[in-house]
């Protein structure tokens, strides 16, 4: 008889090891977390909570319209008669020719003409070295 009891006990322990009841699948940490989240009540925000944190808006002052000078002809004549600052006085023909890329006193081409001439030049041919 003892063999029968041993067999019955071993069969009972095997079936208990693979139990799929709902109580075995509960997660205690998850249950506690969900309970605390459901019980949480945020503190109500007071009506005047923003006072002192937000500045009052005040629109900028309206800009003034620009005014034209009353004696514009006098100012234009003063401007046209004045010399530009930082340029040394030279002869007008050589200064204008040099400013627009013409020739200087030595006959050298400078400025835009020299640059365009450089761009139009043919590329030098490569010399092949024979050993």
UniProtKB/TrEMBL annotation:
Biased composition (Low complexity): 88-97
Recorded superkingdom: Eukaryota
Molecular-function GO terms, alphabetical: proton-transporting ATP synthase activity, rotational mechanism
Region (Disordered) location: 79-106
Coiled coil stretches, renumbered: none
Name of the protein this chain belongs to: ATP synthase complex subunit H-domain-containing protein
Provenance organism: Marasmius oreades (fairy-ring Marasmius)
């Amino acid at each position: 008889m003892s063999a029968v009891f041993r067999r019955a006990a071993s069969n009972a322990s095997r079936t208990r090891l693979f139990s799929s009841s709902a109580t075995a699948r509960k997660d205690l940490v998850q249950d506690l977390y969900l309970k605390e989240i459901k019980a949480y009540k945020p503190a109500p925000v007071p009506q005047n909570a923003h006072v002192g944190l937000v500045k009052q808006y005040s629109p900028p002052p309206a800009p003034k319209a620009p005014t034209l000078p009353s004696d514009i002809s006098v100012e234009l004549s003063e401007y046209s008669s004045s010399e530009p600052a930082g340029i040394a006085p030279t002869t007008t023909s050589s200064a204008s020719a040099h400013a627009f890329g013409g020739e200087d006193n030595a006959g050298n081409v400078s400025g835009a003409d020299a640059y365009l001439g450089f761009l139009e030049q043919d590329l030098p041919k490569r010399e092949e070295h024979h050993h």
